[in-house]
Specification:
Elements (H helix, E strand, L loop, with lengths): L4 H58 L5 H25 L10
């Protein structure tokens, strides 16, 4: 079957549009992957910070620099600040499933 010039041009335009859509979809997928990786890093940093704070107050209680009750109160107050940062972080994106964090 012989294609006319008009059909050839229309098929080329259609292929170009399909290519543009595919390039746009790939770019969107890459941006999403990058955002998720960045979010994982932020959450990991936040968890490490909370763990470090709890460890610090635990060591203070072990050295008897603070009473156990005071160390717990101060640790909870410091962790409340971390929880506020986490709330702001999680509010920006949808929650990650546990398997996505690994």
């Amino acid at each position: 079957m012989k294609m006319t010039l008009n059909r050839k041009l229309l098929s080329m335009i259609a292929l170009l549009w399909i290519g543009l859509v595919l390039i746009g979809a790939f770019g969107a997928w890459q941006a999403r992957s990058s955002m998720l990786a960045d979010r994982r890093e932020q959450l990991l940093t936040l968890v490490q910070q909370a763990e470090s704070l709890a460890g610090h107050y635990y060591r203070l209680a072990q050295k008897v620099a603070l009473s156990d009750v005071d160390a717990r109160r101060q640790a909870l107050a410091a962790l409340a600040d971390c929880a506020m940062a986490r709330t702001q972080l999680v509010a920006r994106f949808r929650p990650l499933r546990t398997e996505e964090l690994r």
